[in-house]
Fold this protein.
Amino acid sequence: MIIALSLLFTAGCGAVVTDNTDSVIAVSFYPIYIFTLNLTNGIDGLTVTCMAEQSTGCLHDYTLTARDAKLLNDADVFVINGAGLETFLDDVSETTEDLAIVDSSEGIELLCSHHHEGEEHTGHNHESNSHIWLSVENAKKQVLNIKNGLVEKYPQYEKQINQNYEEYIVRLNGLSDELKGTYQAAQGQKIITFHAAYEYMAAESGLEIVECIESDEGGEPSAKKIAHLCDVIPGQGIKALFVEPDYNGSAAEIMAAETGVKIYVLNPVTKGEVTLGAYEDIMRENIQTILKAVS
């Protein structure tokens, strides 16, 4: 049974109270926070603090604050997602030369973001897709990378970190097996998403993303683009349109009204409960949403 973290963590990402004698491990944002908390669970002397507040979500175009600078200056280690997500790393290097950085994306094959002819993109780099944690297999590799980085920095805690890793990887392997058993119904099903985050999940589940509409800046597709998508949906036999929990635009509703396609919400795991089992819980909810959408 997964037990919720103590009250030390219940305030959410970025709200951890530290003991002055603890070594501080800073992490960039929510999914990396959950991974690192699992690896350090029960280890006295290590405090994990999340840099980005819960309201931040994904780190596209994130700008370091004075609070961030203080946290990183006090930290021994900074654990990041990597894969180009933390675009502010040059600023970190300039101000904290001795800070050890653990890149959880090492060795993970990156997908290129979904492009379509005539589609305009603004904001972050689209050469590679940095949302690697939405593949459970990638998440397992990220946890291993974080474990190795923490053991290198804190050899005195190697036994405890390794034990936590073994316990967590058993759960993640169980999640992976569980999802593989339910992904069969999703094989080859065509969908449209409003964010490139879901491309790793789609690749792992066998879904085909026919169109991906970037909305990191909150922007909506043009009327011409919406009209194009309304033609694509029936022509391609699209079964579902996926948006994020915080989506508040009108394009999805227009497309649903015009074509009859249903709208579903997928959680990109960028915010949520601060519990050891949070990643697993959210991914299970996502697969149930996918199965409902394609059935």
